[in-house]
Amino acid sequence: MKGYVFHGPGQSAWEEVPDPDVKEPTDAVVRVDTVTICGTDLHILKGDVPEVRPGTVLGHEAVGEVVEVGADVRTVRPGDRVLVSCITACGRCRYCREAMYGQCLGGGGWILGHRIDGTQAEFVRVPFADLSVHALPAAVASGDAVLLADILPTAYEVGVLNGRVRPGDTVAVVGAGPIGLAAIATAHLFAPERVIAVDVAPARLEAARRLGAEAVADAREAPEQLVADLTGGLGADVVVEAVGLPETFEVCTRMVRPGGHVANVGVHGKPATLHLEELWIKNVTITTGLVDTYSTPTLLKMAAAGRLPTSELVTHTFPLERMEEAYDVFAHAAETGALKVVLGGPQHEVVPVSMA
Are residues 25 and 47 in the same domain? Predict the structure, then answer.
């Protein structure tokens, strides 16, 4: 089979790799139908995630068909159409028993495309299949379902739920990339008074408006002042950091009101300054987190009911064998306008979706 292989910083290729097979009785092998690319994959290619060894197939999000299962798998069988979660869960350790699957101690957590071969291939082996794949309802298209493997549960759990968005809140989302846009969409499930999106790209701010942001701000033009103006000087009740840069984190701490929440979702590769000399007196709660995907069944129900604007997040589609081109488009989002790129499924040509 073919897969997209990491060979070291700046080096990767779509090439022949060995077919996966069942190694443990809890494994499933899935024929991949649809995948997407995550910002974390770009971090790996830059060398920011040293645990990823050269020779690893990348990717941690997929939709496909189960073709083989181990003797202990009970929840799926060959022929089932499934969502492959970005998080793998043993189901037995302390953290899994607390639904903190991202911190799994039993060999799970974020392992696909990280510590073992991932999903950007024609087939993938998924450990602990009973808790790590989800049977898909027929009503959810593959191109929509694949967004529930990572970005939607990440935005919902680490951003909206950790931030404790409540009815009537002012929510500021710093970073209107795929995760930030998913946070805007899922924040509206809790009826906030307003959502404010902050970014530097006009196309992304326009996408934020389409997904429900009532106000937008250029990150280079003192967005904290807009937040202050819209809240009578109080600041936002919840601020979601969805970029992963020191300066954006520090902007978030300046935007939040006393008693508010800063929910950090962005992947940080450099230290950020925590201004406790200003924050200690403000009763501010700051949360961080890796997604646990405990919300995936709930999100699947909402997707099947048409309650999640998944198609709004997809800007480009490609056939699976054009993985290298898809990576190039996604990596140059400022020029291409890419939000999420989806590979595989029924499409047979590159389809850039209009951002107008």
Answer: yes
